[in-house]
Structure formats: structure tokens, C-alpha cells
Amino acid sequence: MLALWVFLATLFLLFWRPWNLPLWVISTLGAFFVFALKLVNLDDAYFVLSLVWDSSLTLVGLIILSFSLELLGFFDFIAKKILYFSKIQNSYRINTKKLMIFLLIFIFFLSAFFANDGAILIITPIIIALFSRLQNPKQALILGAFLLSASFLCDAASNALVISNLTNIITANYFKLDFLQFSKIMFLPNLAVLFSTLFMVFVIFKKTLPRELEFEIIREYEFSNKLFVFCLVFLIFFVTSFFLGEFYDLRISVFALSGAFIFWVFTFFIKGKKAFGAIKNAPWGVLIFSFGLYMVVFSLHKMGASGILNSLYYILAQNKFSAIFGTGFVSAFFSSIFNNLPMTLIGDLALKDFPLNMVYAHILGVNIGPKLTPIGSLATLLWLGVLAKKGIDISFWQYCKFGFLITLPVLACALLVLVFTY
Fold first, then answer.
1. What is the DSSP letter of 214?
2. Is the CB of residue 313 less than 8 Å from the CB of residue 324?
3. What is the torsion angle, in degrees rounded to the nearest 10, for the CA atoms of residue 176, residue 178, residue 181 and residue 187?
4. Which residues have CB under 8 Å from 7's CB, separation 6+?
5. 299 near 34, Cβ under 8 Å?
6. Which of 281, 268, 149, 280 is nearest to 205 (CA)?
7. To pair with 323 at 20 to 30 A between CA atoms, which of 89, 140, 210, 290?
């Protein structure tokens, strides 16, 4: 029972963040208590560290790469192009539907290559800067609609590649899932996430979004087309390296950090000392955060939480449909209440002896399901931190209302595609 109280207290502090404490400080505090209360030991710490070090370092590498690209102007260039292609002929008026579609497609790929946490840190400032130039009496409502939609897809669409989410990396390492096979299986369910998200966004915000918007279109780009092509080619080789790593049984973090460092050096030659900002602003604390939170979660596992889930999964595994849908919605529900990182570990341990289709359903559940509540994922917590710094307030109930309306149908679509394709 002590393990549950420590876990709940840790989650409460992560959401509240008193005195604006870093997330890693709070998770470390939780880890300290489970050690002090002898709920876990050094052997447990070694096991948890073996699970989280690769995923954490991979995320750091991806975000250093994304910050380097952002410093060069890569994402701003794409955002301006999206704005330009969304405009109505020879005017400053923008077709709102086109803008939303192009923006969400951009986020779809952003989340795949730079992980959900990297994607949300990149796209949020871009959207805020973009809509600061909007002249509309409903500016706050429109900005909120775009921010909520972007935030949702950053997490929900992080199923494409193993590197797209910490949850994917940890689960893939634990079950020894092949990088290429993972991508093949998750391709269609992830595509279903994109199309169902687009549909639900327009249904939910039908009355909020006007047909047209007016922005100041900037036609001059500091970022050249040649540099854009170079960055694009580099990213293709960067992602390809993860597939090649399968043949040599190398950890994903090796390629993520190596690729990030090579590109950072390139950025340094162009931007000079400004490039050090990409290193400084990288989420180094995520290494400690992941380890600390997982130690707290592992104390729950030792208390018997995985055993309870194991029994539930056994009931659900009686047929393919209930196995996939049941696992997906169970993982989604507990992720939304207890955060998806803890649910990933507990679910992985509980699913050890079950079919892999349930493992993939579990991944969809912990990636899409957390969007039901603001405490569901690390990406959402980071996103709320960015909004707070910008003076933008999205209330708990406003978030939950949107999350409830969009999460369940999108998750159902993704799981249904998984049922018929795997």
C-alpha cells in the first residue's frame, strides 16, 4: 500500500509542480522514498536502468537534432510554406481547413522522426508565433483549437517508428521487436490515427474555426532551398541508420546521438556559439526523470500491480478482437490516470507471455490514450510548461472535454485497423 501512496504523491507533484520544480527533481524524490521505505533494492535499480537508458539517450539525441534544425530555420521554413500553400489566390486570406490539414500532416511526420516530446516542443512555439499575427475577435479560441489538435497528434501519431516515443523504445527493447517489422505493423494503424484525427478535429471545432483567416504572408526566406534539401537528405540517412543497426544488434541511442552530434557540428559551423543552445536546452533531466519514475512504478510491480493486469489480460486474450481492443483500452485508461510511462512498464511486464498483437495494442493504448487527461504523458506536461511560459491558459476541464471527444474514436479506429492487419 505504501508503494501506491508514493506513486500517487509523485504523480500529483508532477502535475502541480510546486515552486516550478523540474520534473526530474520530483521523480527523484519519489525514487528516494521507495528506496528509503525498502520497497525496491539495488537489483531492481539495475533492471530499471537497463530498460530506460537507451530510450532516454535516444530522446536526448532526437531533441538535440530537432533543436539544431530549428536553429537553422528548417521548421520555420516549412511552417511558412504551409501558410503560403494554404492561402487563397493572391490575397492574405488563408483557408482554415487547408491550414489545419497541412499543419497536422506536418506534425504527423514530425512526431515520427523527432518523437512526440521533440515534436511538441518544436510545433508549439511555431503555432503561437503564427497566431500572434492573426486578426480575429476569436483569436484565443482559434489558437486553442490549433494547439489542442497539435498536442493530441504529437502523442497519438507517435507509433510510426520505434524512435517515435519513449514508450515504443522501452517496449521494443523489452520484447526484442525488430525495427523494420515494428514499422510495417504500425504503419496502417498510425495512418488511421491521422485520418480519424483530421475528421474529429473538424467535427469538434466546426463552430469554432472560421472558413478563412488573415495572416501576414512573409515571402522572403532566410533558409535556402539548397539547405532544406540537404537537411531532408540527412534526415533520410539518419532514419535509415536505425534500420541498418538491426543487422549489427546496436542500440538505437548509438545512432540517435551520433547523428545528432554530426548535425550539431554542421550547425555550429553555420551558427557559431548559438549552436550551444541546442546542447544546453536538450532535456538531459529526462535521464533522471525516467529512472526515478520507473523506480516508483517498479515498486508497484513488486506490490502485485502487474499480476492484477496479467489476470485481466488473460481474460481478454480469449479471442483476437477482445485481446486487441481490450488491451488497447485498458492501457489507454490507466495511462490517462497514472501517466503512460508507468503504464508502459507495468503493461510490458504483465504482457510478457502474451501474443504480440496484444503488445502492439498496448503501444497504441499508451500512445493515444494518455490524451484523455493532461497528466497522461510527459509530452503533455512539457507542452503545458511551454504554454505557461507564454501566458496561455488551457484549463483542466477544457483539455479533458477535448481529450474525451477525440481520444476514444481515434483509438478505436487505430485498434480496428490493427485487428484486420495483424
1. E
2. no
3. 80
4. 30, 296, 297, 299, 300, 338, 342
5. yes
6. 149
7. 290
- Cα separation, 328 vs 363, whole angstroms: 8
Joined together, the cell numbers standing for residue 239 give: 532514419
In tens digits, what is the pLDDT along the chain, a chain of 422 residues?
Answer: 788 888 888 878 877 778 777 878 888 898 888 888 888 888 888 888 887 788 788 888 888 888 898 888 888 888 777 877 777 665 567 888 888 999 999 999 999 988 888 888 888 888 887 777 666 656 778 888 999 999 999 999 999 999 899 899 889 988 989 888 999 999 999 999 999 999 999 999 988 888 888 766 555 556 778 888 899 899 888 888 887 776 667 788 888 889 999 999 999 988 888 888 888 877 777 778 878 888 888 888 788 777 888 889 999 988 999 999 999 999 999 898 888 888 898 899 889 889 999 999 999 999 999 999 888 887 887 788 778 777 888 888 889 899 999 999 999 999 999 999 88
Cell numbers for 286, please give them.
529526462
Contact 407, 372 (CB under 8 A): yes
φ, ψ of residue 94 to 5 degrees: the values are -115, 135
In the chain, the amino acid numbered 298 is F
d(CA 422, CA 410): 18
How big is the chain, counted in residues?
422
Beta-bridge partner residues of 94: 87, 213
Helix ranges (H only) for 205-251 are 225-248
Phi/psi region, residue 285 (left: phi>0; alpha: psi -120 to 50; beta: rest), is alpha
Helices (H), 132-224: 139-156, 166-175, 179-204
Quote the DSSP letter at residue 1: -
Q: At a CB cut-off of 8 Å and minimum separation 6, what does 275 contact?
A: 68, 71, 264, 267, 268
**d(Cα 367, Cα 324) in Å, to the nearest integer?**
15
H or E element that contains 34 = helix 23-36
Could you tell me which of 334, 322, 315 has the C-alpha nearest to residue 419? 322
Q: Is 220 helix (H, G, I), strand (E, B) or coil?
A: coil
DSSP state letter for 138: T
Residues 142, 163: Cα–Cα separation, whole Å: 31
* Angular region, 272: left φ>0, alpha ψ -120 to 50, beta rest: left
Distance CA 127, CA 275 (A): 23
